[in-house]
Amino acid sequence: MQAAKAYRLPLRQVGDIRAKYKAGERDFRWADLSEAELSGASLSRANLSGASLRRANLRGAKLWKANLSGVNLSGANLSGADLRKANLSRAYLSGAFLWDADLSGANLSRAELVGTQLRGANLTGAKLDFGWERLKDLTGTILPDGTYHPSTL
After folding, report:
1. Of all residues in the chain, what percent carry a pLDDT higher than 90?
2. Alpha helices in 17-71 (DSSP H)
3. What is the model's pTM?
4. Fewer CB within 10 Å: C terminus or N terminus of the chain?
């Protein structure tokens, strides 16, 4: 018996995501939101799995319990974002800025975090596949076990 092949779906254009979310839409799977200006956007509980948010500005965005599994967030600005209990499994966060972001209870299993800036972030209860020791610049970060990291490694 052959295993099924996994195919990546083409990204789709979604238009004004803020207006669609306000109108009640929550399904933005495989959306192309690369370089989108979404600072302060309210997208809690939205399904953005497989989407591209590469170099998007999500500064201060509300993404509480959002499904961001498999999302490309490389180079995105998520500083001050509310990502509590968000699903970021298999997300690509290389070079993303998460300064002062709240990632408490977030699922970061199998996420790519190389070069991710986490200064001042809250990782309390976050699920990681590896120890926090592998992360860079954790100044002022609250670690998954609830301890405070006072300075860089």
Report:
1. 71
2. 17-22
3. 0.88
4. N
Contact (CB, 8 A) for 83 and 65: no
- For residue 122, the tally of other CB atoms under 10 A from its CB is 24
Q: Please determine, for residue 42, whether its predicted confidence score (pLDDT) is greater than 70.
A: yes
pLDDT for the residue numbered 120: 94
Cβ neighbours of residue 104 under 8 Å, at least 6 residues apart?
84, 85, 122, 123, 124, 125, 126, 142
77: β partners:
57, 97
Residues in the chain: 153
Q: What is the mean pLDDT of residues 95-120?
A: 94
Average pLDDT, the chain: 89
Apex 98 CA angle, 66 and 143, nearest 5: 90
Token look-up 């201060």 returns 60
The residue to which tokens 């799977």 are assigned:
29
Question: Which three-class secondary structure state does DSSP give residue 65?
Answer: coil
Query: Which two structure tokens, joined as six digits, stand for 22?
Result: 């306000």
- As a whole number of angstroms, the distance between CA 8 and CA 17 comes to 22
Phi, psi angle pair for 132, to nearest 5°: -60, -15
How far apart (Å, rounded) are the C-alpha atoms in residues 24 and 5?
34
